[in-house]
Design brief:
Layout (H helix, E strand, L loop, with lengths): L1 H23 L13 H12 L4 E2 L2 E2 L8 H6 L16 H7 L17 H12 L14 H8 L18 E3 L5 E5 L3 E6 L5 E6 L4 E7 L5 E7 L3 E7 L7 E3 L2 E5 L7 E8 L3 E6 L5 E6 L3 E6 L8 E7 L5 E6 L5 E6 L4 E5 L4 E6 L6 E6 L6 E5 L4 E4 L7 E5 L6 E6 L5 E6 L4 E5 L4 E6 L6 E6 L5 E6 L3 E6 L5 E6 L15
Parallel strand pairs: 6-11
Antiparallel strand pairs: 1-2, 3-4, 4-5, 5-6, 7-8, 8-9, 9-12, 10-11, 13-14, 14-15, 15-16, 17-18, 18-19, 19-20, 21-22, 22-23, 23-24, 25-26, 26-27, 27-28, 29-30, 30-31, 31-32
Helix pairs in contact: 2-5, 2-6, 4-5
Bound molecules: heme C.
Length: 491
């Protein structure tokens, strides 16, 4: 009897241990496993599952998870992490809670996966330590960004790239195109790929050559990162593959001359003032930043950060007289900021729909804007917001507007798959350039103003003569991509 009971007890204990083992350690740690790393293992879980509601601006339950220090200090109910005691630590217990106070709240997000929760458990069990070399006050999202390495762009594109930005090189011989985690540089004469420059940004949204010949690029990864970087396209390549020079714009300081901005979401537009002294960029954080670049790329100075819009800034230009900053935004307005007095000067409300881009006449007296209403509208940057002229004819949303260097011709790119040329004074359409088979997301005049390039949602580039509208060359700017034009582009 006694013996029997002892046996049952041993069995019970074994069963209990087994159950505990199965319940709490879905991925049991072995002695060989290195300790869980806070920054590499835990911070990504917090970013993915928690930070949307627990960051400095949105401290749900007064709990801020944006730094190690904050995670350890806890919220209103005290400490959330008790080192060595995961089952008493709410950071962990709320992740695996099956009812009531689960985090993320049940109707607000998927539960943290069992594997990830187990990592959090093990991290707390191991003492909830921070990795060596990281400040407890370091912003975790920034710290993760520093550690993130962009993927190497595909040698051969399976899907055409979406072209959001184009620029002719200052000599007019080559065209720079935004690819996937890279810029691709093509010969205008034969449409052949010449160079590929790797970037952190998944997409380039704005390109501008500085007077020195260096290229400023605005870009990012949606919802993750935004950056403005300056590159030297003439720097020594890592190697040459089949006649194509490969440049490392991610880690080679001879290629990546400077990074002016590192933010949490895409930078969507970029412009250089006509005198070459100021660079301005705007994007998803609603802000427009203006740098003085007169001292060169590596001495750029942030001069102003302007928050004048209620939604993403999609287009930006500086007037030739240096007075006005014109912006287009998803908040359905175009606006003018006076750079000298640092004041908001006017709002142009007439589009009543998303305004995608702006331009300004060479005498700085007329602003132009285009948008989802399919119409070009002109107005006075120093005026009261009244409309001067309109130009119609596009059959769909108008995404881009550019002014030729001599100021006589405007070009617009639309979802109707055409590029239109306009007399900038009369705002009358002079030519419709066809041939692209998808929405026109990018436009660029050649430096001599004689040619205009359009880039589409399906990677197509077309270059036309401005004078007679004749097509000069057409190619798909997706390296190695060969497929029918009907293929769906990369989302
Ligand atoms: C969709 C928004 C949202 C997400 C995502 C979210 N939380 Fe919360 N959290 C809240 C809200 C709201 C509260 C306060 C109300 C409450 O306690 O239920 C809260 C409270 C908490 C508290 C309690 C703080 C205190 O002082 O009582 C902890 C701990 C917590 N969350 C941890 C987490 C963790 C860990 C994650 C990620 C796994 C997470 N939350 C994800 C919205 C969120």
């Amino acid at each position: 009897m006694i013996r029997n009971r002892a046996c049952v007890c041993i069995l019970c204990a074994a069963a209990a241990a087994l159950i505990a083992f199965l319940m709490f350690t879905p991925t049991p740690a072995t002695a060989a496993d290195p300790p869980v790393s806070f920054i590499n293992d835990i911070a990504p879980i917090l970013k993915e599952n928690c930070l949307a509601c627990h960051e400095p601006k949105k401290k749900s339950g007064k709990y801020d998870l944006s730094t190690y220090e904050r995670v350890m200090i806890g919220g209103t109910n005290g400490e959330m992490v008790i080192p060595g005691k995961p089952d008493e630590s709410e950071l962990y217990t709320l992740m695996i809670a099956t009812e009531g106070r689960r985090m993320p709240p049940e109707n607000k997000g998927e539960p943290v996966s069992r594997e990830k929760a187990a990592l959090v458990r093990r991290w707390i069990a191991e003492g909830a330590k921070i990795d060596a070399g990281i400040s407890p006050k370091a912003d975790l999202v920034k710290e993760l960004r520093l550690r993130w390495k962009p993927p190497v762009p595909p040698t051969v594109y399976k899907f055409p790239t979406v072209i959001n930005a184009l620029a002719f090189t200052p000599d007019g011989q080559q065209l720079v195109v935004g690819g996937q985690y890279e810029l691709t540089i093509w010969s205008v004469a034969d449409g052949k790929l010449r160079k590929r420059l790797r970037t952190r940004a998944e997409r380039a949204y704005g390109l501008a050559f500085l007077p020195s010949g260096a290229l400023a690029v605005a870009g990012g990864q949606p919802g993750q990162e935004g950056n403005v970087c300056i590159y030297d396209l003439a720097a020594k390549p890592m190697r040459v593959e089949n006649g194509v020079a490969i440049l490392d714009g991610v880690s080679d300081p001879k290629v990546l001359l400077a990074q002016l901005l590192d933010s949490n979401d895409s930078v969507l537009c970029l412009t250089l003032s006509p005198d070459g002294k100021k660079l301005a960029a705007g994007g998803c954080d609603r802000a427009v930043r203006v740098w003085d670049v007169s001292g060169g790329a590596t001495h750029a100075k942030l001069e102003q950060t302007i928050e004048n819009h209620a939604d993403w800034v999609l287009g930006v230009r500086i007037s030739p007289d240096g007075k006005y900053l014109l912006t287009a935004a998803r908040d359905k307005t175009a606006k003018v900021w006076e750079l000298t007095t640092k004041e908001s000067l006017m709002t142009f409300p007439s589009h009543q729909n998303i305004v995608y881009d702006v331009a300004v006449s060479s005498d700085s007296k007329t602003g132009f804007s285009v948008g989802a209403d399919k119409i070009i509208r002109s107005w006075a940057p120093g005026g009261n917001g009244a409309q001067i002229k309109t130009g119609g004819g596009h059959g769909d949303e108008v995404f881009k507007i550019a002014l030729s260097h001599d100021g006589t011709t405007l070009a617009t790119g639309s979802a109707d798959k055409t590029v239109r040329l306009w007399d900038s004074g009369k705002l009358t359409a002079t030519k419709t350039l066809t041939g692209l088979t998808d929405s026109v997301f990018a436009l660029a005049f050649s430096p001599d103003g004689k040619r205009i390039a359009g880039g589409s949602y399906s990677g197509e580039v077309r270059i036309w003569n401005v004078a007679d509208g004749k097509e000069q060359i057409a190619f798909n700017a997706s390296p190695g991509f060969t497929a029918p034009a009907s293929t769906t582009p990369n989302p």
